[in-house]
């Protein structure tokens, strides 16, 4: 038996949706993209959504829309995937890391506040594991500034903060559709926003910086005419991917409910094990964690590497999320980060193991994981 830490769930409806596009006239730059964007925006209650070929591309586009440029700074968490910091570097900005709150595993707003300077352009909080970051405190902290909040919600589709789905509280919010995420387009990402200016800049950026919109052309030489008005990239997603996304989106609530059900069972299974710390949940009843992953923290007395290897030998393909940004050789060399910085992030990393959790996971598979973990860690 091999149980991955995460996996997609593709059914016959998804397959037929993609086949329908393959038999049609548009494989890319067609109507299915627009349909997916509109449906996704409606799902998170946003006015606009712009699809990209990856979550990383989407974050890059958000930096463009926020006018991030050389010499600027963006503030983000050290416990995240590299893309959360890389997106600023792509624009010539410096990623400024701020330690995490051990009660949420997300960026600590107080630590973030200490790092705001005249060079700061963007605050980029991460909803780690699907926990809705405390964006309201962040917004209150920067209320008298022109800083832009770009929420990295790659883990958090369907998460709820104070009664609202994530997707509108930040200036821009990024979602990922990698296969282990809540829904998948194989690869893909989305930015949602209520700001029309950001929306138009995102659309321009994902397609070479080119527009054919007659109302936006500086001049118009005829119906064939287009203009490259900015340096953009080919970050377009395909109609095939969006057909899959549309089909998956119809099942998003079912997938999310199953994730929460599995997480709740883990909570119960490990609650009496003093050597295992289960993930935090929002304290307020009007907020919801959606468990993209289930990270457990091991007691400091345990050997994480030994446990990790033994679990894998049992076919439990656990993982670690994440190796901190400041541990990466590139960031140490380019930005002079040190291993001993950010003590809360370091402690989290030294103790964390991600155990399997995905909607298609069976009760029997989860029982196998629980029994092996409790037998190994006691």
Tell me what the structure shows.
With 378 residues, the protein is α/β, with parallel strands linked by helices. It has two domains: 3-249, Aspartate Aminotransferase, domain 2; 252-376, Aspartate Aminotransferase, domain 1 (Alpha-Beta Complex). 36% of the residues lie in helices and 15% in strands. The chain contains 13 helices and 16 strands. It has helices at residues 12-22, 31-44, 55-65, 83-90, 109-114, 135-141, 196-205, 239-249, 252-270, 304-313, 329-335, 343-351, 363-376, and strands at 3-4, 48-52, 73-76, 94-97, 120-124, 148-152, 160-161, 164-165, 172-176, 189-193, 210-211, 227-228, 276-277, 294-298, 316-317, 352-355. Strands 2-10-9-6-5-3-4 form a seven-stranded mixed sheet, with helices on both faces. The protein has a three-stranded antiparallel sheet with strand order 13-14-16. It has a two-stranded parallel sheet with strand order 1-15. Helix 2 (31-44) runs parallel beside helix 8 (239-249) and helix 3 (55-65) packs across helix 7. The longest helix has 19 residues, at 252-270. It is globular.
Name the CATH class of the largest domain. Alpha Beta
Strand percentage lies at: 5-15%
Number of domains: 2
CATH architect. name of the largest domain = 3-Layer(aba) Sandwich
Global mean pLDDT = 97
**Helical run tally:** 13
Can you tell me the CATH topology of the largest domain?
Aspartate Aminotransferase, domain 2
